[in-house]
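Today's session is about reading a structure prediction critically. Students often jump straight to the picture, but the first step is always the sequence itself: look for stretches that repeat, for charged clusters, for runs of hydrophobic residues. Only then move on to the predicted structure, which in these notes is written as discrete structure tokens rather than atom positions. Here is the chain we will use throughout the hour.
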Amino acid sequence: MKYLYLKIGMQYVERQVVSLDWITLLLVGCVVLLAIAKQMYPKRFQEFVMLPITNKYFLVQGRNDEIQHPFNLLLFVCQVVSVSLFIYLCIKVFNPEIPKNNPWLFVQICTAYFVFVGIKFAIEKIIGSIFSIDALINGYLYQKLSYRNLFAMVFFVGNLVFFYTYQPSQTLLTIFVLTLLVLNCIALFYSYKTNGTIILNNFFYFILYLCALEISPYIILYKALV
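Below is the predicted structure for this chain, in token form.
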């Protein structure tokens, strides 16, 4: 945080200037990771960005459900950084006093997001193993990870716009988040529809999984924050 004093007439007016150096470094780092992913896996990257149009990515490049594939890991790092930056921006807009009083806020957000996703993923894998539905869980987790990595690219673009081009309002950020939530619901519905036969054959386990690991964690997180 920097302060400049501008002389207007016979008085000095304080002007607050927020440094974006660390944010710029993080966003440039995301660009580098995306460039590496595209350079190392050009065909996979091309089919990945076409996910809103076609599911060829899942049928060809992602048919083996390789969640730990380097391509997915590179995009996941971008996801963690981009989403955490956007959450930081929302806190800054809705409650600007918190970032001022907590210089480590972004690190805390980034760590919390990574831990939340990691624990949720581990529990999902354990449940899949317990109920012997590993194939179903792996396929679902892979598709969910791919869609969220894709949405993270939208967050990345939003961060560029909101940090450097247009100062967002609370209303604009709310609309942006609601739009992404709707798109996420559409992606989940499409995933469920694609795996409709498998889900019907394991309907009880699917409902149990949906309530315990897709709805409850977010309700608990909301209650904890609010």
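Discussion point for the tutorial: Residues 20-225 form one domain.
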